[in-house]
Amino acid sequence: MQDDFFDQVYQVVRLIPPGRVTSYGCIGKYLGAPRSARMVGWAMHAAPTADPPVPAHRVVNSLGLLTGKMHFETPFTMQERLEAEGIEVKKDKVVQFKKLFWDPETELKL
DNA sequence: TTTTTGACGATTC
DNA sequence: AGAATCGCCAAAA
Asked: Residue A46 CA to nucleotide B6 C1', Å?
């Protein structure tokens, strides 16, 4: 299970600190699949099936848009969770996304 | 096995 | 600036 590409994504997503966000493409890129951003998104589809819960709400697209909010329990869950962590969400997009952006390659490279 | 699709990203119109 | 299209890759039907 831990050898699957999905789990690789889950592990990275779990490393995202509260109050920060990242993008699918960067996760994929960090895993060696810069063109497989969609795969990361697909992996998130199975996120709730992962044993340790995956904070998928901290993962947004490159524009900081909460594109996957509709896949949560309710379309509001994602935004509410982000706000609960101190992240402002306006019009389904993360405010100061660039500032809150958490790049695994930058934060975990050491 | 083939076809369709998808929580993306970048490009083009 | 906003919308539509193409490209990538893997899982699901």
From this structure: 13
